[in-house]
Design brief:
Elements: E1 14-18, H1 26-34, E2 42-46, E3 54-59, E4 62-67, E5 82-84, E6 96-102, H2 113-129, E7 134-137, E8 142-144, H3 146-157, E9 169-172, E10 178-181, H4 184-187, E11 190-193, H5 201-218, E12 225-229, E13 232-238, E14 244-249
Parallel strand pairs: 5-8, 11-14
Antiparallel strand pairs: 1-6, 1-7, 2-3, 3-4, 4-6, 7-8, 9-10, 10-11, 12-13, 13-14
Helix pairs in contact: 2-3
Protein name: DUF4261 domain-containing protein
Organism: Novosphingobium album (ex Hu et al. 2023)
């Protein structure tokens, strides 16, 4: 059954951002999916009156609502603090959002791995086939250049590294500590890498990227754990207060 709230203007976690008056209509999405070279195993499973501005899509047996299609109002969005993949500044002008959300019976499991992977694969395909200017991922407070987003997602889904700079945000503090934002959407915990004296910020962030990938692959920590990386052994311990994993270098 289609979502009874599919046509609302509520904010979505993942949004494709378009320039003013360039959002696709339901008919545009239908033509895209029907094209011989579409390359997507996706079909429209419910299509209301076009004026409602949404479609229900079926991908890998899971349903997703695409909301904010023209001529309906775009999905509202606020500025986010972290941008990745843009060579310069973000595109000029007010961007309009089209949201992609888990729908129907899977909405309650929107944070489950198979649902997230299918949603990101669908979004990555749409982002390179439509005139998308940016991709917004609210759990991490990130906005990404479309090809950067799609390439990182396709690489991850093919067995590569998790897109830590995009699907999470990594913020270095003045003392060298690096903290994640958005990792909890995938494993229920954020990560904080404690600073090492004399280490360059870029090296701390590179290590944090590898740690995020490790944690996504292995899941949340419930007890202290030793992680072996090229940089040496690391000690990781779940916090007794709050959902956070503390990581620091093991003493030699």
């Amino acid at each position: 059954m289609p979502s009874s709230q599919a046509g609302d203007a509520g904010q979505a976690a993942l949004m494709l951002l378009f320039g003013a008056d360039s959002r696709p209509a339901a008919a545009d999405i239908a033509r895209l999916l029907d094209a011989p070279d579409a390359g997507m195993a996706v079909r429209i499973s419910h299509q209301p009156d076009p004026s409602e501005g949404w479609l229900e899509l079926l991908a890998s047996g899971l349903t997703f609502d695409l909301r904010g299609l023209s001529p309906a109002a775009p999905v509202p969005h606020d500025p986010v603090p972290h941008a990745y993949g843009f060579e310069g500044a973000l595109p000029d002008g007010q961007m309009e959002g089209v949201g992609l959300v888990a729908a129907g019976h899977i909405a309650a499991g929107a944070v489950l791995g198979p649902v997230l992977r299918t949603m990101f694969q669908l979004a990555a395909n749409l982002a390179i086939r439509l005139p998308v200017q940016a991709v917004l991922w609210l759990p991490a407070g990130t906005v990404m250049e479309p090809r950067y987003f799609s390439g990182a997602v396709f690489n991850w889904l093919a067995g590569g590294a998790f897109p830590a700079l995009g699907l999470t945000a990594l913020t270095p503090a003045s003392d060298g500590t690096v903290t994640s934002t958005g990792l909890s959407h995938f494993i229920g915990q954020e990560m904080q890498l404690e600073a090492m004296e004399g280490e360059a910020r870029v090296d701390s962030v590179k290590l944090a990227i590898r740690l995020v990938d490790y944690l996504v692959r292995h899941g949340p920590l419930t007890e202290p754990h030793t992680i072996t990386q090229a940089a040496g052994e690391l000690l990781a311990e779940p916090s007794s207060v709050g959902k956070r994993v503390w990581v620091w270098r093991a003493h030699s």
